Amino acid sequence: MRGRIALLTALGAGLLLACRSVTLAPDGLPTGTVVLEAYIPPAQATEAPGAAATATDPGGMGPGVGLPAERDTDQPYSTSDQPDDVDGYQVHFVYALPSDGADAFLDIGGEIELSATAMNTWLHSKTGQRLRYDTLDGRLDITFLRLPYTAEDISQEYRSINSLLEHWLKITSRAKENKLYIVYYDGFVVTNEGYCGLAPVPPAGIGQTAVLLLRGYNPTRDLTCPRSFTRSADYTGFFEVTILHELLHMLGVVGECAPNYNGSHVSDHPQDLMYHQYDGTYSPLFMYLDYGNDDYYNHGRPDCPDLARSIFLEPLPEGAELPPRWNDTIRNIPPDPIGGMQ
Question: How does pLDDT run across 223-244, given as a tens digit for each residue?
Answer without folding.
Answer: 788 787 888 888 888 778 888 9
